[in-house]
Amino acid sequence: MWKTVIALVLTLIIIPICTYLLDVPITPEQREILNVLLAVYVVSALLCFVVSTISKNYSQVDKIWSVIPILYVWIVAWKVDFEPRILLMALLVTLWGVRLTYNFARRGGYSWRFWEGDEDYRWAELRAKKEFQGAWKWTAFNLFFISLYQMGLILLFTLPILKSTAGSPLDLTDFILATLFIALIAIEALADQQQWNFQKEKYRQLEEGIELEAPYDAGFVQNGLWSYVRHPNYAAEQAIWIVFYLFSVSATGIYINWSIAGCLLLLLLFKGSSDFSEGISERKYDEYKGYKKRVGRFLPKLGRKEREKVPV
Question: What's the mean pLDDT when you consider all of the chain?
Fold first, then answer.
């Protein structure tokens, strides 16, 4: 586990440096804006570390995952006097953030005592591992991965908006990308709603002492979008930020520019995150291994004449 953490932290340093060196230098105006964004990043990451350490709730970054990108994009928009493309990108990120914040809130992620709220179950799973036994080990993990790494990643995947400043005029490509962005938000929302409906009904039956019937007896959702891929919400989330990166390509005409680092790192994070969560699911649910064999992780499996149907 520590090797994975160290590798991820190193990629947070190496990938941005490599992509920066391969691209044209940022302009003085972009550097000035970047300095503001970096200041916000450092303060917010350290606050997450301090609050999580004191409260023992390590989902502080989760609480602002969908909020702080909105702050970043509007800082950029304000600094460039709301250039048309930048304004469009800021509005799209705001739509994404409001939707995701709502989904997080209805699952109990927030509390009027801001340091409280439900904690992601995976942090407890990690804390129980032998690699993190000892207060200093978990504190180091909290500082370098949960706080600094994740908050740094959030900043990086929003940076295509900075790269897009002073770009070419807004054109049809941008509106196509905007349409794709909104469509992906809709797919992510549908996947989250399907999971919400499943879990709500499953726990209703459990609370009423009803013997779980299909498909709830399996314990995990396999219907709708979840019958095509195991993580349709994750797949849509990754695609959202790839599309967001493409706005910088439209603005600059440079297909591989330094702002690609964020979406590349996000792909790595979701690979690791899904590996870990699926390991937990395999231990909890007898049918999960079979589900993995017949359903792709982020993309549908090809070459199957007929998918196995799960009762609705």
Answer: 91
